[in-house]
Amino acid sequence: MLKEFKKFILTGNVIDLAIAVILAGAVGAVVKGFVSMIMMPLIGVFTGGASFADKVYELSPEVLDAEGNVLTPANNLQYGAWIDTIISLIIVGFVLFMIVKAYNKSKKKVEEAPAAPPAPTMDQELLTEIRDLLKK
Question: Is the pLDDT at 22 greater than 70, yes or no?
Fold first, then answer.
């Protein structure tokens, strides 16, 4: 069983999948940084300096005691962070679309070899023999 597992793990497909998962995590971090550090500040310029990351809808406010300590934290819907995530999804989808498009374009089109003519039937072989005999 251990040998079978080792053979399975060392096949190219599993290793390729592991590499793809690791790269996907790294690309996800890069895209998240791009969206939050570059795209959203640019969008903020067009929206009057608003930062989406800080946008929340407060469902219930935080409760403080007499000394200002938080007894119950605020309950918020963080729709700004959700907008950042949606923009990240659109960017990743577009990049993947461009990669797949370039890959498909770079693939060589496999030309189909012409199909071999079908083998002659028994009748055709017999007629060919008769023709050849008549020529002689």
Answer: yes
Residue 75: name the closest of 85, 90, 89, 60 by CA.
60
Confidence band (pLDDT; 50, 70, 90) for 51? Answer: low
Q: Structurally, how many domains does the chain consist of?
A: 1
DSSP 59-97: EE--EE-TTS-EEE--EEE-HHHHHHHHHHHHHHHHHHH
**Look-up: residue for tokens 């963080």?**
78
Over residues 93-119, the mean pLDDT reads 78
Tell me, yes or no, whether 128 lies in a domain: no
Phi and psi torsions of 11, nearest 5°: -70, 155
User: pLDDT band for position 111 (50/70/90)?
Assistant: low
> Could you tell me if residue 86 is inside a domain?
yes
The CATH number of whichever domain residue 42 belongs to comes to 1.10.1200.120
Average pLDDT of the segment spanning 91-119: 78
Nearest Cα neighbor of 92 from 9, 11, 33, 44 is: 33
